[in-house]
Amino acid sequence: MKREYLTYAAINIGSNAIRLYISYVFDTINGPIYKKANLIRLPVRLGEDTFNNGEISNEKIELLITALKGYKQIIDVYQPKKTRACATSAMREANNCHSVVKRVLDETGINIEVISGEEEADIIFSTHIEKKLEQKNAYLYVDIGGGSTEVSLFANNKLVDSKSFKIGTIRMMYKQIEKAYWKSFKNWIQEATTGYDSIIAIGSGGNIGRFNKMAKPNGNKYLSTKNIVALTEELRSYQFEERMKVFGLKPDRADVILPFSKIYLAIMNKAKIKQTIVPQTGLSEGMVVLMHEENKELLAE
Fold first, then answer.
1. How buried is residue 152: exposed, middle or buried, by Cβ count under 10 Å (0-12/13-18/19+)?
2. Which of 91, 157, 245, 296 gets the highest tally of CB atoms within 10 A of its CB?
3. Residues in a beta bridge with 26
4. What is the pLDDT along the chain (301 residues), one digit of tens a residue?
5. CA 70, CA 148: separation in Å to the nearest integer?
């Protein structure tokens, strides 16, 4: 039986976690429809090594390889049209990056692309979620990871400005962000968004997704900045173990959620943003979009 859809697999090797995202894609007269088939997340935390010691330890490499071997077996079951693996800040900043990539290829058959911060922002941008929203507003797309933060400003359905910063939850947790760099980050946000009214944030990533589930009133389209502030204060009132019990957070979420909140609220404050949309799209989804577009181009040739 001929399939009426294509399958793609995206592996996102981040500073905090490694994600396997598998998506079905249905082509229609109104454009492709993307449907999540599977999503698996493992908290390997390569950033703990890179940001503290400058390189990835053998212990973390073994965990990475074990995770990818498991992912490879799952991918083989889905038989995707194409698979892509991208690594972000923890890998690209590791002194032993090239040897890790080679070892992974030798032992798993998976070729890791180590992408720059700018490439990461471009891939995230490829989902074009802003085109599905009201054009009267400007939008600030914010993706905060363990090692980097990508920020893109859209207005009149066009990308106005975009920048990647070496600021993330793992770096902040281990106090790896210098005050001068933090200040320049906030200044850039303020300058880039000056002159725009009615800016709405588009939040990407697991942490803002968790805030969305915990803080947003039922039926409300937007997550308000006031709700994020209120929930942050509540989270601060609990110790690590208590945050897991009270809010149902996993250990690797409970320790980074406050560093995430500090970064996110700094952006909201400087950009004077009151509302966030959380569409559940990010790097992995962008990778799938690009793989499908590339496949269509090949078929058209």
1. buried
2. 91
3. 33
4. 456 899 999 999 999 999 999 999 999 998 899 999 999 999 999 999 999 999 999 999 999 999 999 999 999 999 999 999 999 999 999 999 999 999 999 999 999 999 998 898 888 878 777 666 667 789 999 999 999 999 999 888 788 999 999 999 999 999 999 999 999 999 999 999 999 988 999 998 889 999 998 886 665 678 999 999 999 999 999 999 999 999 999 999 999 999 999 999 999 999 999 999 998 778 899 999 999 999 887 766 5
5. 26
